[in-house]
Amino acid sequence: MVPPPCEARLESVTAERRDLLGEQFGPRWGDLAPFQPLVVARVGAATVAVCHAARRSPTAVEAGVATLPGHRRRGYGAAVAARWAEEVRRLGLVQLSSCSWENAASLGVARRLGLQPYAADWHLT
What we know:
Layout: E1 8-12, H1 22-25, E2 38-43, E3 46-56, E4 60-67, H2 76-90, E5 94-96, H3 104-112
Parallel strand pairs: 4-5
Antiparallel strand pairs: 1-2, 2-3, 3-4
């Protein structure tokens, strides 16, 4: 697992602990069930990054990661993604991640986690 930056706490978000999403991330979701597992990184009282289930099938779950602009490139995204992947494995599901080749931030998280590309999508218009 990627350790969080020393000042961050990683916490799992449940319906009972929806407050952990904070002001920045809380309004994004109504029902949290489709986005579980959901993990946040908190610095003090502020939630600075989140990883959630972006897509789900009966056997696999795809990660969605967001980090607040003022907290990027500090390891929060990789830390929440690593903890999220542990929770997905505990559920007996395969964890997936995807992004465009232009998404340097997501590619950086994947690199930090030691993930290898396994597919590419090519479009002709």
